[in-house]
């Protein structure tokens, strides 16, 4: 345990970086957001009531059925049109909750026209994809009226997986520009981190998130080959340093490496089975309550507003459960970052910058019910407790002459290196090169003062502290945890491509 280091005092010091009025503003925004869940559900129920009582979907269903009996196509059109009608009816609420309110709290600088245009695109995409989902859902209801809810879990899982796979490739680029981290210290750091834990380094992007939001944020999206970690440019506009990048990207790499998206999708699919089972039991009384006398039953796509109303209530009641599921994944990603990159202060500095849209110190019950991320105060406390329990080692450098003799004409290979990375080749003439997902890097290296420093010909530099290990060597970058490396012989003919 580190001497004279108090995790509670360190946590309080980090939170004190923001003045009391900033914390009060964040609390007002966060707690107001809790009420938005209820009001948003009531708006959804009102929209469902209006659509049912208007009979518009019944009339459209009759018109589509009158031309030709194609139930799958009828369900698709009714499903897509329902999403559009619901979006239009809910537009005033969406303007308030998604644009005006964040604008008042300084969390977005986006003009209303830009927000409205992107919302229209999102609605169109949602109608196209949602129409397909509802077409297949109603096909299940018609084919298996007693057990359709059981099969709905597989349908939900399939659509979640397809959406996760395709979103980074075709949907997210509609709204933002994603580019690989540019050459320089950030990219070099990210490449080194990726090499250390076996994550492909071409999966780290920076995007123009400030276009929509002023929030300090990063995310992981995609599935299998499309998965990627993306840092919003707001991180760097708010002064993110290398330590913060290590903490934040390490967290997002945790989501990627621990397959959080997959197991969350799996659990959500199981919850969908339960939700659709309850829909099967509650549809008839809900339909009577909303005045849907012209709806022919659960298999009638014109009853979509009734189905959605039941799901709205169920999802509201399930909020603590779904939030807790995501919160567990977020805590696990924090731990992954700390274990693999040992950057508790970098993570804490980044977390402080998220307080503006997520109050730092809620009550325990409030956190369980409403927070889909652990409270910032608690996350910083855990990071500081990690720091106390895992102080960064004060490494005693091996004699430089011994290190030079061991490392020259060798390839430094890190554990779990992904396909596409060959290690750092150190030639006897003082030059080095390596292959990674961005191509080739090369330059000059020096071993002095117990450190290996790589100067890239494009001007950037990265250094590793060198330490001894039983039967080999360790390298530690930027004060991170030492990683055991293997030194392979460099073929005499080796050269960069």
TrEMBL record:
Residues 16-177 form the CAAX prenyl protease 1 N-terminal domain. It comes from the Bacteria. The keyword Cell membrane does not apply. Keywords: Hydrolase, Membrane, Metal-binding, Metalloprotease, Protease, Transmembrane, Transmembrane helix, Zinc. One of its GO terms (biological process) is proteolysis. The chain crosses the membrane at residues 34-52, 73-95, 115-141, 148-171, 262-283, 304-321. Its cofactor is Zn(2+). One of its GO terms (molecular function) is metal ion binding. Residues 183-386 form the Peptidase M48 domain. Pfam families: Peptidase_M48, Peptidase_M48_N. The keyword Heme does not apply. This is Peptidase M48. It comes from Caulobacter flavus.
């Amino acid at each position: 345990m580190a001497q004279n280091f108090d995790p509670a005092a360190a946590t309080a010091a980090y939170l004190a970086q923001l003045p009391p009025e900033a914390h009060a503003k964040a609390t007002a925004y966060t707690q107001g957001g809790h009420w938005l869940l209820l009001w948003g559900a009531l708006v959804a129920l009102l929209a469902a009531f209006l659509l049912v009582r208007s009979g518009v979907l019944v009339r459209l269903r009759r018109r589509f059925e009158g031309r030709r009996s194609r139930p799958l196509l009828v369900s698709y059109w009714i499903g897509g049109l329902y999403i559009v009608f619901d979006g239009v009816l809910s537009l005033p609420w969406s303007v308030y909750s998604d644009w005006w309110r964040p604008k008042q709290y300084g969390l977005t600088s986006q003009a209303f026209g830009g927000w409205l245009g992107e919302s229209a695109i999102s609605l169109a995409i949602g109608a196209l994809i949602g129409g397909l989902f509802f077409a297949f859902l109603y096909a299940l209801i018609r084919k298996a009226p007693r057990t359709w809810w059981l099969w709905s879990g597989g349908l939900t899982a399939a659509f979640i997986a397809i959406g996760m796979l395709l979103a980074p490739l075709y949907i997210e680029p509609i709204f933002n520009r994603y580019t690989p981290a540019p050459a320089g210290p950030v990219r070099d750091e990210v490449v080194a981190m990726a090499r250390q834990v076996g994550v492909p380094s071409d999966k780290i992007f920076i995007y123009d998130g400030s276009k929509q939001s002023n929030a300090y944020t990063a995310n992981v999206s995609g599935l299998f080959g499309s998965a990627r970690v993306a840092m919003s440019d707001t991180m760097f506009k708010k002064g993110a340093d290398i330590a913060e990048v290590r903490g934040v990207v390490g967290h997002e790499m945790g989501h990627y490496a621990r397959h959080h998206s997959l197991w969350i999708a799996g659990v959500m699919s199981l919850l969908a089975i339960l939700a659709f089972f309850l829909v099967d039991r509650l549809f008839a009384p809900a339909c009577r309550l909303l005045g849907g006398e012209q709806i022919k039953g659960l298999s009638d796509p014109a009853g979509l507003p009734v189905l959605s109303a039941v799901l709205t209530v169920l999802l509201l009641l399930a909020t603590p459960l779904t939030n807790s599921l995501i919160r567990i994944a977020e805590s696990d990603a924090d731990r992954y970052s700390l274990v693999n990159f040992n950057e508790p202060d970098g993570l804490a500095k980044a977390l402080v910058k998220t307080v503006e849209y997520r109050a730092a110190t809620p009550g325990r019950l409030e956190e369980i019910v409403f927070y889909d991320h652990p409270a910032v105060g608690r996350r910083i406390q855990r990071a500081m407790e990690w720091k106390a329990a895992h102080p960064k080692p004060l490494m005693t450098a091996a004699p430089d002459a011994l290190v030079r003799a061991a490392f020259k004409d060798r390839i430094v290979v890190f554990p779990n290196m992904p396909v596409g990375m060959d290690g750092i080749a150190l030639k006897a003439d003082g030059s080095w090169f390596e292959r990674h997902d961005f191509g080739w890097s090369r330059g000059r290296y020096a071993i002095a003062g117990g450190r290996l420093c790589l100067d890239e010909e494009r001007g950037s530099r990265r250094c590793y502290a060198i330490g001894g290990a039983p039967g080999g060597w360790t390298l530690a970058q930027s004060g991170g945890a030492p990683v055991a490396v293997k030194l392979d012989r460099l073929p005499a003919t080796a050269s960069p491509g």
